[in-house]
Design the sequence.
């Protein structure tokens, strides 16, 4: 019996020991899990060159690299032109955006050289401030902002929580904080502007015919597509560190940039440590909208010699020659000689884009088409008679052999508008500049001139259009000029 009791005691001790050992092991395992548990990334992470992932863009700061970050929004692919309907937004994830400074580079590591063939784009975004978490809506005939809960509400925002139980997808927002939505919405991107960060606003809206009044918090930080830049293979360089590099242009403005649709970085146009407190993230790079449009469109020139009634322009298009342009927006603009923009109307059924003007001013007009690879099969214009009967003068000018620093010149009498141009054999038109000067006796002197740094051999026409009752053209001549001073000889 004593032996059996001893044996039972040994077994009991052994079992307790095993159980105790198991508890120790489980505790140790649990502790190990806690030590190696991966925490979610909440801010931009800097890595060494060897740690960069393939086929991802990084911004380099010193010896470290940070991957660009793509927040929420409707800009989930690479832009092929400027589209102000594209927005990005932040809730609590803005620290994920890496910072980039003047003089540094954008890097890209890959097993292919596709980046050389495709180049890269920088789509700049304007900081349009905080708003309630809705975007992409449109103003309806009722004057209200129409949005889709499924497509136009920011997940995780206060607005999302308010609409979570709705069985109706379409919302018609009447007002916010007593302001009519039609008065404060950006009609390009559907974001309500001018709200204060984290401030609560009373929002009036309809779900179907049901009226509601809720309090929403302006908790969403929005960015809107603002400018567009495209760079080819010439700007992309190989390095001996196994990545390609793109040096950020020295004249780039401070702001948010999306690299080829893959992610955003915040660029400071200053060296690290020298960023001013009053830095402007929204300062425009382009002088006007015309200059910006020319960056992402293909252009055709249209010369209008005199003021004309009822000008009609029609462009017939086909497919795209670049596969990457498939599925992207098709469009066009007509730009006047003074830089005024006119949207062209698209007919997808007829594959045409058109523009109609009641009156077209004289000068060189520009037809801008996007995307650039869109195939144009026909371009036609039609006009009625000029607004007034105009005088036309045309002279032949033969250049036997190429010459340098040649100017075509004519004096203007009277105060009316005069259109002058030099037309080459291939139809290329060089519009003459109107210059107004004061003579030594303080009289006004007007003349037309076009300076050719070099003019090729060939037959040219010098043409003028004007109204005889207002002006006249005299002393038509071809002269040399001094290239250092531009003075005529």
Sequence:
């Amino acid at each position: 019996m004593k032996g059996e009791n001893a044996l039972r005691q040994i077994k009991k001790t052994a079992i307790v020991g095993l159980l105790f050992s198991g508890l120790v092991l489980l505790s140790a395992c649990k502790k190990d899990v806690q030590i190696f548990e991966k925490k979610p990334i909440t801010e931009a992470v800097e890595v060494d060159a060897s740690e960069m992932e393939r086929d991802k863009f990084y911004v380099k700061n010193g010896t470290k690299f940070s991957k660009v970050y793509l927040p929420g929004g409707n800009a989930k692919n690479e832009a092929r032109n400027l589209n102000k309907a594209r927005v990005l937004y932040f809730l609590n994830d803005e620290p994920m955006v890496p910072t980039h400074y003047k003089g540094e580079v954008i890097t890209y590591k890959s097993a292919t050289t596709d980046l050389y063939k495709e180049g890269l784009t920088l789509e700049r975004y304007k900081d349009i401030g905080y708003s309630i978490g809705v975007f992409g809506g449109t103003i309806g005939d009722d004057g209200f902002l129409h949005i889709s809960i499924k497509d136009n509400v920011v997940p995780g925002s206060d607005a999302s929580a308010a609409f979570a139980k709705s069985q109706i997808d379409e919302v018609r927002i009447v007002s916010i904080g007593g302001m009519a939505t039609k008065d404060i919405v950006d009609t390009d991107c559907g974001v309500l502007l001018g709200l204060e960060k984290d401030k609560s606003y009373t929002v009036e809206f309809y779900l179907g015919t049901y009226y509601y009044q809720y309090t929403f918090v302006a908790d969403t930080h929005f960015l809107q597509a603002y400018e567009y830049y495209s760079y080819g293979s010439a700007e992309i360089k190989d390095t001996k560190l196994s990545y390609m590099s793109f040096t950020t242009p020295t004249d780039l403005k401070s702001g948010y940039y999306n690299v080829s649709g893959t992610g955003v970085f915040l660029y400071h146009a200053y060296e690290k440590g020298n960023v001013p407190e009053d830095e402007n993230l929204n300062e425009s790079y382009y002088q006007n909208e015309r200059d910006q449009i020319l960056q992402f469109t293909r252009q055709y020139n249209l010369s209008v010699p005199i003021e004309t009634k009822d000008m009609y322009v029609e462009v017939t298009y086909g497919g795209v020659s670049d596969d990457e342009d498939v599925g992207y927006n098709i469009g066009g603009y007509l730009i006047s000689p003074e830089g005024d923009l006119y949207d062209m109307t698209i007919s997808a059924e007829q594959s045409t884009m058109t523009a109609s003007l009641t009156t077209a001013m004289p000068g060189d007009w520009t037809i801008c088409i996007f995307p650039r690879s869109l195939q144009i099969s026909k371009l036609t214009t039609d006009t009625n008679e000029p607004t007034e009967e105009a005088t036309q003068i045309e002279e032949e000018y033969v250049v036997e052999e190429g010459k340098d620093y040649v100017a075509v010149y004519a004096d203007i009498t009277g105060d009316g508008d005069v259109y002058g141009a030099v037309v080459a054999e291939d139809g290329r038109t060089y519009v003459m500049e109107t210059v107004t000067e004061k003579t030594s006796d303080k009289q006004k002197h007007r003349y037309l001139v076009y300076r050719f740094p070099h003019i090729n051999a060939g037959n040219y026409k010098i043409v003028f259009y004007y109204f005889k009752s207002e002006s006249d053209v005299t002393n038509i001549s071809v002269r040399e000029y001094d290239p250092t001073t531009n003075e005529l000889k």
User: Anything to note?
Assistant: The first helix runs from residue 2 to 36.
